[in-house]
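Weekly modeling sync, notes
Attendees: S.R. (lead), two postdocs, one rotation student

Agenda item 3: backlog of single-chain predictions. S.R. asked that every request posted to the team notebook include the full sequence so nobody has to chase files. The rotation student volunteered to paste the first one in as an example of the format we agreed on. Action items at the bottom.

Example entry:
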Amino acid sequence: MPPARRRKDGGWVMLAWSLNGIGFVALVIIFFLYLSRQPVEAASPGPGLPRVPRPTLTPAPTSYYLPTVTPNPRATEIEDYSTPTPFVFTLGPAPALIGYSVLGRPIQVYTFGQGESQYLIVAGIHGGYEGNTVDLANELIVYITQHPEVIPSGSMLYIIPDLNPDAVARGRNVDARVNANGVDLNRNFPTRNWVADWDHSNCWNERPTTGGAYGGSEPETKAVMNFILSHHIQAMISYHSAALGVFPGGVPWEPDSKDLARRLSKATGYPYPPIEIGCVYTGTLADWAVEHGIGASVDMELANHRDSDFDRNLKALKVLVALSK
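Predicted structure, as returned to the notebook:
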C-alpha cells in the first residue's frame, strides 16, 4: 500500500509541474502577442538628432470623381454634334498645368520649341459648342510633335487646347458654350469696354449668358491671363467657330493685329474683314491681349461647328510662327 500511494502522490506532483510549465509558456505567448499590437516608435537616430515620427498611411482612393454639369432642362437643342472620343496624348512634351475650371478640371498648356519669340494658340473658349476648335488644337499638338521642324529655330509655341473644359464635358450643343457659372468667357476679360450685359439682338442669343460679375471674374479667364502676363507673347490666335472670319484685337483694331489678320486670311481663306452682323463684342481675349502688350492678336473662326479645317490652319500656324522673320 505505501509504495502505491507514493506513486500516486508523485503523479500529482508531476501533473502540477506540467501545468505550471504550460502556464508559463502561455504567459510568454500572451506577452509577445500584447507587444506585437502596440505602436512601434521609430528609434532615436542618435544624440542631437530629432526623432522621426512614425508615418500615418492613408489608403489610396479606389476612384476619382469630377463633377458634371446638368444642361438647362428648359433648353431644346438647336445643334447637336456627336461628342468625339476623348483626346489621349501619349507622345511628345507633357502639358503644364496653368489653372482649373469652375468644377476643378485642369487647364493645360503644351510647349514646343525654344527661343525668345513666343506665340500662343488658345482653343475651346466656348466649350463644346465650338468643340471643333479643341479638335484642331489637339491635331496641331500631334502634328508638331511628329514634325518639330515646323517651329523655327529661336521660337516657342504654346497651345492651350481646352480653356473651358467644363463646357466641353457637357457635349456639343448650344448648352455647352458658357462655363459652369453661366459666363461667356470671351466676354469676361477686363478690357476697357467690358460689360456684364450687352445688346443680344445681333449677337449669339440662343441661351441666357453674362460677361460675369466683373471683368476677369472666372477661374478659366484668370488662368489664361496669368499665363500671358508671365510670358512674352509676340502674337496669338484665339480660335472660334463659325464662319465670320478673322477679327483683329484692339478697340479700335490695332495695326499689327490687322496685319496678322490679313496674312491669316490670305493663307486660310477665312474672311477679312470679318463678316459684319451688327454685334458689338466686349471683354474679348484678343482685345485684352492687345491692351496688355501682345504685339498682334486675333479671334479666328473656323468654317463651321463640325470640322477642324486642319489643312487650312496648318498654313495659319506657319504664318503665326514666321512673324519673327
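Discussion: group reviewed the output briefly. The first strand starts at residue 96 and ends at 100.
Action items: rotation student to repeat for the remaining queue; S.R. to check formatting next week.
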